[in-house]
Structure formats: C-alpha cells, structure tokens
Amino acid sequence: MKSQRKSIENLVLNFDHGQNELFHPFHILSKSEYNNIKKNNIVLDNMRVISKPSHQYGSLTVFNIKKENIGAHLRKHFCPCRQENVIDISQVKKRFLTFTMRTSDFVHAGSDIKIFGAIPIDSSGMILLLIVTYDNTFSDQEKINQYINLFRKRKYSIGSGGIKNYHHGTIGESYGVGLVAKYSIDEIGLSFGEYSEKDNSKESETSSSQLYAIMDHLMKLALKKPLEIIPNLDKNIMIVGNSVSKRIRFLTEKKANKLKLRWKIKIN
Hints:
Blueprint: H1 2-12, E1 27-30, H2 31-37, E2 41-43, E3 45-50, E4 60-64, E5 96-102, H3 103-106, E6 123-133, H4 141-154, E7 166-167, E8 170-171, E9 179-181, E10 192-194, H5 204-229, H6 233-237, H7 239-248, H8 253-258
Parallel strand pairs: 2-5
Antiparallel strand pairs: 1-6, 3-4, 5-6, 7-8, 9-10
C-alpha cells in the first residue's frame, strides 16, 4: 500500500493542475484489524445520502442498524429499536466503540462517491467510519479549563452557515489552529493561511505557537488509545495533512514567513 498511498498524495495535492474534486481519507480494515474490534463494533447497513434543503443541515446520511450487527460488548448499551442511544464508553468493555460499513455498500451511498486507491489483499471488506475511545490519561480538569479560556481569549469560535457555535453538523465552540483554506488567492499566491486571531492578541506569533503546541499535545493524547487498537491508523486518516506538511517545505522563505511556519515545521 506504500506506493498506492504515494499516488493518492499526488492526487490530493496536484500543484500542476486545478482540483475540482473533494477527497476524504478512510481506512479499510484488514481481517485481523476487524477481528480485533468486532465485539465493540456496529455495522451500518444501507447507508445513503438524501438531499434535505437546509442551510443548517444540508444533506443527511441515513442507515439501518440490525441487532445481529451489534458487537457483543455493546448489546447491553445499545438498543436498535430506540431512536436515540446514549453510550457511556467508560462502561463498555475495552472502553471503545467503532462504526463500520461494507465496502460493497460504500459505492451505493451516493451517486457522486468514488473510491480511489487499492483495497488490501487481506481486506475484511469493512470501512472504518468512526472510532470512539475512553482514556483517562489526561484528567487534569483545571488545566483543561485553562486551555479553553486561552482559546476563547485569542481565537474566534468557528461557525458555518451564519450560525454561531454551529460547525458542519456539530454544536458548540470550535477553535482552529494552524492553516485553513481561504478560498481565494492572496497577493503572494497563497490560497490558505492561518486561522484569524482576535485583535487584542498582542504577541500573535507567541500566542499562535502556544495554541499550536497545546493542540499538538492534545492530539497525541487523543490518538494514543485508537493507535493501540488499530496501529498505523493515523497514516491513512491523516494522509492529507501528512502530504501538505511535505509540500510546505518547498515554499519560498517569503511565504513561509507569512504563514509563521518557522515554529511549526522545519524548513530545509
């Protein structure tokens, strides 16, 4: 899959040609990976996208859940006959939950969905859609509150559709660090840049690097448990970010300075 992954990186980030298609990375589980999670897994059947004219919700994804497709460790926590289920992951054996769907069903989920890349020889025929884990490695609530207050002070909460605290299907405060698409090209040829900071941030470079370091630390903690369950998962689901990081090294010094990349990555 190494050579195949490289070709996908070139497809995702083609500097020579314009790109009109959107790509979303996913992970096809091997047989051993699926066997490792199936008791904590729920298989979604007949998944499809239906159009719903709404500036807030856009299209909806619907699916069916059958009793026999609920893993043994989840059956007392999840009832398919109920419209809503609340699962306390800390009470689930092995403390994780996954959702998958069959690769054979994936192409029927929407008329505009295509699969790029090779399916592994030892494929289980299952695509990982979601993994939820519980890990109390980071339990310092006071430090968490400090982080929240810091983001509130220095960043604007991200919203979409003109709705405050709503971001593509999620409700709550969302803050971004690092680089984001700007959907226009600036005076030096960049179509991306940093997330906006509040005007009262006096030392913008210091505050940006501090927030980036916090997010990087929390991301590593968040990935610890999932990578114990499915090793190397991040190599697939973060293929776009990994590819961007490699390409950024070739930016001119002027562009790198504008993006304040000196403290984020090593520019060779």
